[in-house]
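[SOLVED] Need 3D model of a two-part complex

Original post:
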Amino acid sequence: METLPLQADALNIGFKLLPAIIVFLMMASFLVIGYVFKVADTEGMWVAGRGIGNIENGMAIGANWMSAASYLGLAGLVALAGFYGLAFIVGWTTGYFILLIFLAAQMRRFGKYTAPDFVGDRFNSPTARALAAFTTLLIAYVYSVGQARGMGLVGQYVFGLDIIPMIIVMMTITVGYLALSGMLGATKNMAVQYVILIVAFLAGVYVVGFTQGYSTVLPQIEYGALFSELGAEFSEPFANSSPWLWAGTAFSLIVGTCGLPHVLVRFYTVENERTARWSTVWGLFFILLLYWAAPAMAAFGVNLFEVTQGVSAFAAEGGMSGAEGDVIVVLAAQFANLPEWFVGLVAAGAMAAAIATTAGLFITASSAVAHDIYSELINDDATQRQQVLIGRATIITIGALVTVTAFNPPALIGQLVALAFSLAGIVLFPMFFLGLWWENTNRQGALAGMIFGLVLWITATVNSTVLSEPFSPLLAEWVPAIGAALVGTPAVFIVTIAVSLMTPEPDMRTKRMVRQCHSPEPMGQQQSAEDVVTGSDAPADD
Amino acid sequence: MSDTDTASEDSSHELETDGGVAAEEADVNYLETEINLLSPSTPFMRDHLKVVWGTFAAWVLIVWGPFIATWLAPETMTQTIPGGFPLHYFLIAIGAPTGALLLAGIYARQRDKLDEKYGIDPSSVESGSGSGTSEEVTATDGGIEE
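Solution:
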């Protein structure tokens, strides 16, 4: 395994009082909000009572979405990888459109709790449910490692601890408030976290741009003037990646967007399907507020790096390191000689971003274990109290695992997160898409497709990310882990469809459930497609 | 669970809400018609899929067009445009995400119009009136044209 330089040398590491107070107040407010909205039942823990509205859910989509990978990693990739970094911008935004037209409202009509719930109930298979739950856990784990690393790197600027104790402190706080508050607290917090992170990020871009004379009112466009100074590496097409890798990365991130369980669950929390649609549009808008500005921050950061360090950011020796790229957003503010408290604010925004996403991921992981594995597969008579307890135990366990892995991560923040996307895009997206749009997709097809997808992703990841020397260079070239969905997703579609065609069609009850998801007729707020089909008024988790 | 909605007690309410069904409009039973992305079987699905595929085609063009053009004709695409950007950079970093947002808004608008066309008001049942069993649905579905 390749080791990355652990800390960003150019970052001014050391304890700083004002930034520490800002971060402390922010964390305390998360805990207070989490406590005020704490929940004791599963409906509140996982789907926030299904009563969240348009803009609030849009903000939650934004906060849930924008992790350390968006706040820090994206600008880092654009700064370090040039044109290849744009594949991440395209992949992490435009996928929401696909999610909107094909999945959001239909998922809301299906009306369950979790992604494994959908897979298990749609394909009538405890095994499919278990596979989806396992995939959900794996996604949450890989994705969170990037967040823990981001929190640790940025925390160093504020608190000056070594990276390892820093990661431990930050993760402990995140796990603590989550175990207390559950999804309702998390959803309320996400709206707050969105506001903090977007204000901090945009303030950073505007102030750096203005004080350094790069921009005035619209840095999102004005950074265009810098291209002539930035060096060809910043924009030259395919200098850092082949077109195949570029397309594979963008494609993986797009289908991954549509397959991520913690994104999907946001549609289960809204009032009705119209809210599901409009909150997707709002969510994308809120996300773009950051994504329009991130390349500007990257351009400012690269230029400032060259001015202050006296060496090209892209130089082989003395250029920008991976860890420096990962904190370029904070570094840019530091290079611009802005007051300490202001740089601290930018750093605090990164922490809010990392915590909000980790919260969403851990909630889905805990529901995958407590709901999908424990109460659906192991103990049918699980009480709500038992489920909530198991859920909390899961959050603590996965938190510990993520913390330990983040000590020595195998890739940049943005790349780690992209791995989780390619997994979601390969294994879960085809199940959601086919499950909702082709009623003859059956249990055998789903099982074959998911197993095939999991094996493919694990092979590609071990081959091109975990091992320092791939066992198959050919595989690493054509199915790189980060872009594995370009081959993997169509392959899983083919396997699932072929096996479904060769085996008996699903029963009429299942087909009716699918049809209910596409019917234009309104349904009750607490009603699932299954309730409608069976004509029962039973709770949605029966 | 706080779920107290029942499907059956709402069936009378459902009957009232479809008062606008014109005589010539066929009743469609949405639970008895096949879901197949490639061959939509109800007027609503056909109308919906027109919007879906129309906006999807525009999405492919906006999101993947600049990338493919840059791959095939790097010289032309890397020309500097007013504002200082190389053309490919502007179209991909700013054009593609913004285009996706506009298309998302267009889709959501069109989908709301479909709701109007088929006489659906999702907010009217916020507190949760169910559609009842499949038999009841036959009798109570909303106004469908054709």
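Edit: Residues 2 and 45 of chain B are 33 Å apart (CA to CA).
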